[in-house]
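Quick one, C-alpha cells below. Sequence please?
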C-alpha cells in the first residue's frame, strides 16, 4: 500500500463531500493553472448506476499501467486512482472564457486549491 500525500488525501476526502444528502446539489471547485474547474465527482464503482463505458475504459488503462510499471502487490484499483479525480458535467472558467465538458480527469498534482459550492 502506498502512502498518500496530504494533498491527495484531502482532495479525495473533500471531493466526496457533495455525496452527502445536504450538499447533493453542490459541485467540486478546483483551482488550477488552467482556471477554475467545476464539476461533480464521476461515479467510480462498477456496481453503482451511472458507471459508464468511459469509467470501464479508464479502469482498464490504469490496470494496464500498474501491471506494466508498478509492483504487482498493489492490486486495489481504489488505491491506484488516488492521484486523479474523475469529474463529470465539468465547466472550466478562465477569465471570461468558459468551456463545458461532459467528462474530465484531473491529475491531483495540478490542483492548487479545492472547495465545494453551487
Amino acid at each position: 500500500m502506498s502512502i498518500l500525500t496530504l494533498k491527495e488525501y484531502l482532495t479525495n476526502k473533500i471531493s466526496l463531500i457533495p455525496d452527502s444528502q445536504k450538499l447533493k446539489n453542490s459541485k467540486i471547485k478546483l483551482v488550477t493553472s488552467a482556471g477554475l474547474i467545476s464539476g461533480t465527482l464521476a461515479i467510480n464503482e462498477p456496481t453503482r448506476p451511472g458507471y459508464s463505458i468511459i469509467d470501464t475504459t479508464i479502469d482498464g488503462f490504469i490496470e494496464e499501467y500498474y501491471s506494466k510499471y508498478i509492483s504487482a502487490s498493489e492490486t486495489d484499483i481504489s488505491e491506484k486512482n488516488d492521484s486523479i479525480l474523475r469529474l463529470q458535467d465539468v465547466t472550466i472558467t478562465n477569465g471570461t472564457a468558459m468551456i463545458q465538458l461532459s467528462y474530465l480527469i484531473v491529475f491531483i498534482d495540478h490542483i492548487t486549491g479545492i472547495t465545494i459550492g453551487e
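The chain is about 25% helix and 35% strand. The first strand starts at residue 27 and ends at 32.
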